[in-house]
Amino acid sequence: MTAIREVGQCAPRPPGEAYTELFDSHFWGLVRLARLLGADDPEDVAQEAFVRLHRKHRTLRDPNAALAYLRSTVCNLTRNRLRHLRMARLRHVKLADRALADSAEQTVVHRESVRELLAALAQLPRRQRECLVLRYWLDLSERETAEALGVAAGTVKAHTARGMSTLTKKLEKQ
Length: 174
Fold this sequence. Notes:
By secondary structure, the chain is an all-alpha fold. The protein folds into two domains: 1-101, Rna Polymerase Sigma Factor, Chain: A, CATH 1.10.1740; 104-174, Arc Repressor Mutant, subunit A (Orthogonal Bundle), CATH 1.10.10. 80% of the residues lie in helices and 0% in strands. The protein is built from eight helices and no strands. The chain is elongated.
């Protein structure tokens, strides 16, 4: 009877085999996606997406959604890397410009302005402070800020407007 069962039933595929097929079928497409989105290291982005899928394969609600998960991960990783590069380049340019152009007096005035801004920012309610930092310090869009905070885009707009108004009033008094 066991011989009939073995012959009549297909053996389930091991999870590694399905993962290998997914990798072989879609890796280069995900590399192209990362390249089109502007990644300077598209192969690394695609590999990282597969690593993250492999780590999460047991917690995926729908195993058929693996490709959608990979695409979403490639988009997020590319966005994060581009944002990081943009911020790093901006800091580098600002530091270089400041080193060349600022006098001692300008440096002191700038540092004092930054201290005043940070002190006023620290006095804002938490949600307003988070919205302002994500929007203007990290240069996220309203949608990205809303996703990061887990709120609606309208909530981000409202808190950003209130925070800017409060900051303006506090800094004008000083």
